[in-house]
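ok trying this again, last paste got cut off
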Amino acid sequence: MNFAQHIRAVLVLGLPLVGSHLAQFSVHVIDTVMLGWYDVTALAASVLATSFFFVVFIMGAGFSFAVMPMVAEAAASDDGTRIRRVTRMGLWLSVLYSLVFLPLLVWSAPVLRALGQDPALALMAQDYLAIVGVGLVPSLLVMVIKSYLAALERTAVVLWVTLLALVVNSGLNYALIFGNFGAPEMGLRGAAIASVVAQTLTLLVLALYVAKSAETRQHALFTRIWRPDPEAFREVFRLGWPIGLTNLAESGMFSASALIIGLIGTLPLAAHGIALQITAATFMIHVGLSQAATVRAGRALGRRDWAGLALGAKAIMVLSMGVVLVTTAMFLSIPEVLMTGFLGPDDPDRGAILAIGASLLAVAALFQLVDAGQVMALGLLRGMQDTRWPMVATALSYWGLGIPASYVLGVTLGFGGVGVWVGLVIGLVFASAALWWRYMRVLNSLRAA
């Protein structure tokens, strides 16, 4: 394949993944928008709660991310048995992980208080997490099935099912947060119930598709699924736990930034939540492309096509950098326009929150390049099934540099939210450089073998 063919292949595979990530993320954006219109305090509590939940969720998603390159490699060598085995054990590990961490979500208020958060906000966040925690099992199972389908390059169904979940979640939010359509007005709890219902529906639809579709039923994924497979279990666990901790290092950095800003005040925390939603939305584009990189690299690994792997990586980076140019220009030129829909027009704190948020988006424009770069490198390394070195590199970059810098700049030196976000930039710069160095090292090693 030449460069243009690689670009086309990435787009065919990656655009539905980008769309599904944006649709999935829109669920959280709609929660934020509706809760912002409902009550600023509820919005601030949801920022704490969703940050806490995401840390637990994204660490558990490491097993689903491990399934993707393993299935892609097996598909390239036409090994249907291996596809079934690793996907099943990914489902097993996701359920076991959920059961272990569910109590942490149900009784989260003491943890949040211990981290210095306002006791009232901590209790509100716990009410939300006690409900959303029930949805951890279907959420992680959905991630495994999506990874399985993406590795088989069946990404269109992932997009359409995620869009269905978005519609269901939006309708339930409108009904349960505000008490519309005759439903009780439940505020923050209503948003939590809507999320659980949407995730459960997504799982049921995807499972039905996998069981009945001509493209996937040959794998008999759910036949005798209760039977243990120790060898495949160990393989998925071995590849997945470093991915989970890598996810934790990155997402935990952003969640910890919310906790640090929570020490500064409620308004900066609300502004941080809005700005983070916007930057995370653009980041979802890069995540979709990164997963396309994982699948393409995994298939190249199965074929032992190192030249194709390298050229595909260049194609993915070109596409990612094009997105960076567009989003950076938007963050610098129209920050208020991007944020205005998150708050009610009559909110007395609207002006202050928008001003703080605009300054945060200006800093976010600085880290678009390195943030995109590090997730592309991670996607390629996962496709090459190299996960432990990236875990160490990201942990040192984010927690050895990023978080300490955020605290010192934001709290100790008094630069507020802007200082916290500059600290994030520092961590991302070092992570991106380290991961790309590792990619080149692994690629050269494969070529020499």
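PB: full thing came through this time. The chain has one domain: 3-448.
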